[in-house]
Amino acid sequence: MYFSSAGMVSGDSVTPDKEEYTPTEGSSVSLSCTYETSSDYIYLYWFRHYSNQAPQFILYKGARSYSSERISDKRYKSTTSRTSTELVITSLTLADTALYYCALRDYTQ
Fold first, then answer.
1. Around 34, how many Cα atoms within 13 Å sit in the side-chain half-sphere?
2. Pair 76, 58: CB distance under 8 Å
3. In this predicted model, what pLDDT tens digit does every residue of 67-77 receive, in sequence order?
4. Is 102 helix (H, G, I), strand (E, B) or coil?
5. Is the pLDDT score of 12 beyond 70?
C-alpha cells in the first residue's frame, strides 16, 4: 500500500509534512500538512486522487475562527490547529491507496 500527500495552494501556503506512507491493510494512517496564512477565516480540505480520475472530496474542517466540519466517511477523522491539519484514516484497505491532497481556503476573500 502506498500513500502520498501534497499541498494545494488556495491561500498562502500548504505543505505536506511527509510525502510517502506505507501502512498495512487493516491499520490506520495519519497524514498531516502544515499551513501558513494571515487569515483567521479558513477551512482545511482533504481530497483523494486516483490515477485517471478527478480528485474526490474527503472532508473539510474549519480552523481558527471556524469550527464546522463535513466528513464523507466514518473512517476519516481530522484535527486542526493554528498551523496544521491532520487526516486519520482507519481500517485501511487497498482501495485507500491513492494520492492525498490537503488544501486551504480563505473565506475573507
1. 3
2. yes
3. 888 998 999 99
4. strand
5. yes
Start-to-end CA distance of the chain, whole Å, equals 39
Residue 92 sits in which domain range?
A: 3-106
Among the listed residues 94, 90, 51, the one whose alpha carbon sits nearest the alpha carbon of residue 74: 90
**Paired strand residues for 21:** 3
Kindly report the pTM of this predicted structure: 0.83
Query: What would the pLDDT profile of 32-83 be if each residue is shown by its tens digit?
Result: 999 998 888 899 999 999 999 999 999 999 998 888 889 989 999 999 999 9
Nearest one of 37, 48, 15, 60 to 109, comparing CA atoms: 37
Q: Which three cell numbers stand for residue 86?
A: 491532520
Tell me the residue type at 10.
S
Q: Which residues pair with 8 in a beta bridge?
A: 103
Task: Look at the chain and report how many structural domains it folds into.
Answer: 1
What CATH number has the domain bearing residue 63?
2.60.40.10
Are 99 and 46 in contact by the 8 Å Cβ rule? The answer is: no
